[in-house]
Amino acid sequence: MGKVYMKLRVMPSDVEVDLEKVKEEVKKVAPENVEIKDFAIQPIAFGLKALLVLAVMPDEEGIGDKLVENIKSIEGVESVEIESQELI
Question: Which domains does the chain possess?
């Protein structure tokens, strides 16, 4: 079974959300077999910034959805979008 590389865009609920705290929460809520490889902050508009999350996980059904749902449950997160996903 292979691995999947997934890039997620995490949008905060407003410009006041501390993305450093969100990063730490993402690490905590990631399922056991998901490895968070990197984070980046992407300016959007009017001071709003998105958190980009790069994760590697086994090619198992539902694991990506579980990661997305867990991140959506973090306080201050408005939405989570899968920007890209590929088999590695």
Answer: 3-87 (3.30.70.60)
